[in-house]
Amino acid sequence: MTRLLPLVLSRFDLPEAELHAARLDGELFAIDECFGPIDLAPHASLRAASLAAILPARLIAEQRTAAWVLGALLDPPAQHQVCADAAARYRFAGAARFTVREVVLDSDDTAVLGGLRVTTPLRTAIDLTRFCAEFGAAEEEIVAGLARIGRFDLPAAIAGLERRRHLPGKVRAAQRLRAALLPASGVSRR
Fold first, then answer.
1. Strand ranges (DSSP E) for the chain?
2. What does DSSP say about strands 80-85 and 59-61: parallel, antiparallel, or unpaired?
3. Residue 147 lies in a domain
4. Number of structural domains found in the chain
5. What is the dihedral of CA 34, 23, 12, 39, to 10 degrees?
6. How far apart are alpha carbons 56 and 88 in whole angstroms?
7. Range of the domain at 78
């Protein structure tokens, strides 16, 4: 019986030379380190599947990587940010393009897209406002995009932040959420 190729192709499915040749021939397009058929528009499940093809199953896309998967960031980050649930007690050998951290997750903090666990838009926005070293206009736009995708507003974001007790960076995150989600001078972000 003929084996069907997966929707997203990686170096584990075909040699890289063949994948790049198919891209040059206009049959595939690049999705981070993987490739997808040209007749499919890029979408969240396809971006997630491209990461699921190269990541161990226990790892979860978070922060900028989750923002890219969800569609709030156009290009994949140069350094993917993934996490492992602290309850999973998982150790990742690592790779140059991935930063991994161990986190405590509630059951509603992740969703599965394209075979990959991804932090929800709300959890992603909260994590970005807590952990970004610099938080400027680009980061505000990402958080605003996550709010549109996840259909949450400032009160819902603040409530999501407040329900987590003993959270480091909570005050700074609330300030950043306000900056990103309060329209300046009544002008909406689009």
1. 28-31, 34-37, 59-61, 80-85, 98-103, 110-113, 116-119
2. antiparallel
3. yes
4. 1
5. 70
6. 13
7. 42-185
Instruction: Judge contact between 50 and 33, C-beta under 8 A.
Output: yes
Contact in structure between 81 and 132 (CB atoms under 8 Å): no
Helix axes 44-52, 63-70, angle to 10 degrees: 130
26 belongs to a structural domain: no
Q: Is residue 31 part of a domain?
A: no
* Phi, psi angle pair for 81, to nearest 5°: -110, 115
Residue that is written with structure tokens 């140069």 in the block: 78
pTM of the model: 0.90
Residue 1 domain flag: no
- Where residue 12 falls (left for φ over 0; alpha for ψ -120 to 50; beta otherwise) is alpha
pLDDT tens, the chain, 190 aa long: 566 778 899 998 999 999 999 999 999 999 999 999 999 998 999 999 999 998 988 999 999 999 999 999 999 999 999 999 888 776 766 677 889 999 999 989 999 999 999 999 999 999 999 999 999 999 999 999 999 999 999 999 999 999 988 889 999 999 999 999 997 545 554 5
The tokens of 63 are what? 């922060």
Number of residues that this document lists for the chain: 190
